[in-house]
Every structure is written in structure tokens, then in C-alpha cells.
């Protein structure tokens, strides 16, 4: 620490969407100083070369990935690196005494065998999978306090779990009936270009992908199983939408009793009482991705259908903020014992 008020942080993966969003959000954080922005491909260059929107805002050059050097200038590292890269990098960062908040999927699953089945590459050590604390702030916020290693939840799981956990915990919905229909903007796939994120493939198109094979399925199931105390499996379909930011998770479940929309609204308002980043819509009003864009909010609305005895729950987040950089900073605040909204009170950008 430079003084008792300021935490020095480094960002590995500063040239990706998650890293650049961390840089943007941390400009407004009163207790954090960014002391190193790191890239494996562009070290030495000013970050504003690749990101002119940072001109006169961040004047640093990009640093190399060297854990010992990072430990000399920083107390904590955000690893905004791809799956597989984090698995190798995080143990090295912890080894030199750094605190770590990892944005990848590498440390979210507790069972290495399940990780390898879904991610298709070797799992981190069982010891580190055990050590990583899963930082879904509004549910496990107490558990991240004072730890030195947090695994930040996935974007789809954040929207989905916040939408389902209160109803599952209360036993109001049949856990064997869950269907999740999720849609993401293209920034969710990262900055690297690929055929699937190519303009001509995305523009005026809407497509399903990784159906029944998405790596976030076991993450959602792991947490719901933990909350329910019984094994839960889900049907989970992901879609790519021609927009830049945003996730909408639409969830369908059979009701276990005659619960109304008013009941759901009251249940969720109680569950998320005092948690400023979850907002529950009034009856008959459903959230849209633009209503949370650029912010750390997760907004949730409900529709109960007495004809089918099902509830539809609609949850939206900004994938790069609440689904990545914003929740990572919220986790930092909780870890440090600071007010959880410190530096995160952005109003959504509208329109
Ligand atoms: N985009 C999103 O909405 C979300 C992303 N995530 C997760 O966050 C992480 C970052 O995602 P995102 O920013 O979108 O990804 P990007 O592809 O946009 O960026 C990845 C970053 O990692 C760096 N990197 C790549 N290889 C290495 C390496 N070997 N060593 C060090 N750094 C490396 C890249 O920069 P360089 O080549 O310059 O080193 C780049 O800065 C991923 O694990 C992703 O799954 C999680 C939730 C939401
Ligand atoms: C639109 C899009 O492609 N989204 C990505 C989300 C990637 C991501 O956030 O991955 P982790 O949470 O596992 O780190 C995907 O569906 O794989």
C-alpha cells in the first residue's frame, strides 16, 4: 500500500474488454491507484496507442507479465485473462504474495474433473480450486471479506443466478423444471476477432450457440445445487445478439404453490434488501439491457402465468460491468471491508 487509504492494483489483460473496463471504472475509485497495466503482446507501448479513448486519462506504458516485478509495485492483481492463461498465471501471482481477483472461468468450478469436461483443458490444482472464493457479491459477499483470492463469476451466471436464487432458496419453484434462455451482446466474446464475432456474421442476425454445451452450465448448476441442498440440472441456451453490451437471461420454472407476481416482487425485494445493485421492477414492467448499460446494476422482473402454473423471470446486466469488471471491483470492496459500491455508482447510459 502507498498509504493506508490507497491500494495499488495491477491489471493483467489490460488490452482486453474486461481489462479496459476495469481501467475505466477504477478512474472513479477513491481508494485505488492503478500502478501497472500489463499486456503479453504489446508491452512497452503507451496503452493509449491501442486505446485512444484513454488519451490524457491513462498515460502509462504497458508492462510485461512478470509476477515478481508486479509484486514490487502492486498489492492486488486483477487477472482479466483468457481461460487457460489464468490457470497458469494465478498460482504464480499468489506465490509472490499478491492478492488476486480472477475474471476467467478457471477457478469457478470446485471439481477439476467437471472443469476439464466443459473447458476442454487441464484444471488448476485441487488446492487452488478449493482456495478460490466464488464472488457472487449479493449472495456470498460475506465469504470474500479478508480473503486473498476471489474467482469472479461468469457473465451469464451472474444474471441467471441473481434471477433464480431467491425463488430456489424459498422453495417456490420446482428445481427440476428450470429452463434458461440467455442472450448476450458481442463484447461477451472478447476483443479478439473471430468468424463468429465478425460484423457481417453478427449484424442483423440472431443465433443460438453452444447449445447444451456452454461452459457456464456447470457453474450455474454448482451454485444452485449449493443453495438448494439437492442436485439441480438446467436447460440453458445461449444466443448472440447484434448489440455491443448486455445480457438478458429469461428463466422459466414451474411454481410449487399459488404464488403471484406481487409475492415474487416482495420476496426478491426482501432477499436483496440493502443491496443497491439489484433492482426489482414493479408488476408488469420488465427490464431491458439498455436500462443497465454501463452500470453495475442487475435488474429483475417477473410474470406469473396461472394458465401454465409457471413463472417467467427476466434478469439483465451489462456483461462487461456487473458480469465482469464491475463485479470484480465490488468484490475488491467487500474483500477490503470497504462500502461495496465504492467507485461503482454509475448511472446507466441511456439511450
Ligand atoms: N467480455 C466479457 O463480457 C466477459 C469476460 N470474462 C472473462 O474475462 C477474461 C477476459 O475477457 P475479455 O477481456 O473479454 O477478453 P479479451 O480477449 O478481450 O482480452 C484478453 C486479454 O488477455 C490478454 N492475454 C492473452 N493471452 C495472455 C497471456 N498468455 N498472458 C497474459 N495476458 C494474456 C490479452 O492481451 P495481450 O495479448 O495484449 O496480452 C487481453 O488483454 C476472460 O477469461 C473472459 O472469459 C468474464 C465475464 C464477462
Ligand atoms: C458472447 C460470448 O461469446 N460470450 C462468451 C462468454 C465468455 C465468458 O465470459 O467466459 P467466462 O465467463 O467463462 O470467462 C461465451 O459464451 O463463451
UniProtKB/TrEMBL annotation:
Keywords: Amino-acid biosynthesis, Arginine biosynthesis, Cytoplasm, NADP, Oxidoreductase. The keyword Cell membrane does not apply. GO terms for molecular function: N-acetyl-gamma-glutamyl-phosphate reductase activity; NAD binding; NADP+ binding. Residues 8-147 form the Semialdehyde dehydrogenase NAD-binding domain. InterPro entries: AGPR, AGPR_AS, AGPR_dimerisation_dom, AGPR_type-1, NAD(P)-bd_dom_sf, Semialdehyde_DH_NAD-bd. Pathway: Amino-acid biosynthesis; L-arginine biosynthesis; N(2)-acetyl-L-ornithine from L-glutamate: step 3/4. The keyword Cytoplasm applies. The active site is at 155. One of its GO terms (biological process) is L-arginine biosynthetic process. HAMAP family: ArgC_type1. Catalyzes the NADPH-dependent reduction of N-acetyl-5-glutamyl phosphate to yield N-acetyl-L-glutamate 5-semialdehyde. This is N-acetyl-gamma-glutamyl-phosphate reductase. It comes from Paenibacillus glucanolyticus. The gene is argC.
Amino acid at each position: 500500500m502507498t498509504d493506508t487509504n490507497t491500494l495499488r492494483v495491477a491489471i493483467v489483460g489490460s488490452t482486453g474488454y474486461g481489462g479496459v473496463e476495469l481501467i475505466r471504472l477504477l478512474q472513479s475509485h477513491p481508494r485505488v491507484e492503478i500502478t501497472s497495466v500489463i499486456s503479453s503482446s504489446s508491452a512497452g507501448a503507451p496503452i493509449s496507442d491501442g486505446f485512444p479513448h484513454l488519451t490524457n486519462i491513462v498515460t502509462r506504458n504497458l508492462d510485461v507479465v512478470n509476477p515478481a516485478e508486479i509484486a514490487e509495485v502492486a498489492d492486488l492483481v486483477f487477472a482479466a485473462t483468457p481461460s487457460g492463461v489464468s490457470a497458469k498465471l494465478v498460482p504464480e501471482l499468489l506465490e509472490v504474495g499478491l492478492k488476486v481477483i480472477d475474471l476467467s472461468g478457471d477457478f469457478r468450478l470446485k471439481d477439476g474433473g467437471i472443469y476439464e469436461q466443459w473447458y476442454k483443458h487441464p484444471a488448476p490444482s485441487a488446492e487452488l480450486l478449493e482456495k478460490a472464493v466464488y464472488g457472487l457479491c449479493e449472495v456470498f459477499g460475506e465469504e470474500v471479506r479478508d480473503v486473498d483470492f476471489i474467482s469472479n463469476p461468469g457473465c451469464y451466471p451472474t444474471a441467471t443466478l441473481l434471477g433464480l436464487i431467491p425463488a430456489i432458496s424459498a422453495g417456490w419453484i420446482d428445481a427440476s423444471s428450470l429452463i434458461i434462455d440467455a442472450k448476450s451482446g458481442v463484447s461477451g466474446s472478447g476483443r479478439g476477432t473471430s468468424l463468429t464475432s465478425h460484423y457481417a456474421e453478427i449484424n442483423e442476425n440472431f443465433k443460438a450457440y453452444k447449445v447444451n454445451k456452454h461452459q457456464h452450465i456447470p457453474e450455474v448448476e454448482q451454485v444452485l445445487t449449493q443453495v438448494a441442498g439437492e442436485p439441480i440440472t438446467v436447460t440453458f441456451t445461449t444466443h448472440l445478439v447484434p448489440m455491443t453490451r448486455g445480457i438478458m437471461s429469461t428463466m422459466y420454472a414451474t411454481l410449487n404453490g399459488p404464488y403471484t407476481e406481487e409475492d415474487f416482487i416482495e420476496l426478491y425485494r426482501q432477499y436483496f434488501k440493502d443491496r443497491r445493485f439489484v433492482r426489482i421492477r414493479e408488476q408488469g414492467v420488465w427490464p431491458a439491457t439498455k436500462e443497465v448499460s454501463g452500470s453495475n446494476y442487475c435488474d429483475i422482473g417477473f410474470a406469473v402465468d396461472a394458465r401454465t402454473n409457471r413463472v417467467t423471470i427476466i434478469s439483465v446486466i451489462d456483461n462487461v460491468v456487473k458480469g465482469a469488471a464491475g463485479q470484480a471491483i465490488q468484490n475488491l470492496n467487500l474483500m477490503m471491508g470497504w462500502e461495496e459500491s465504492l467507485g461503482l455508482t454509475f448511472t446507466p447510459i441511456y439511450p
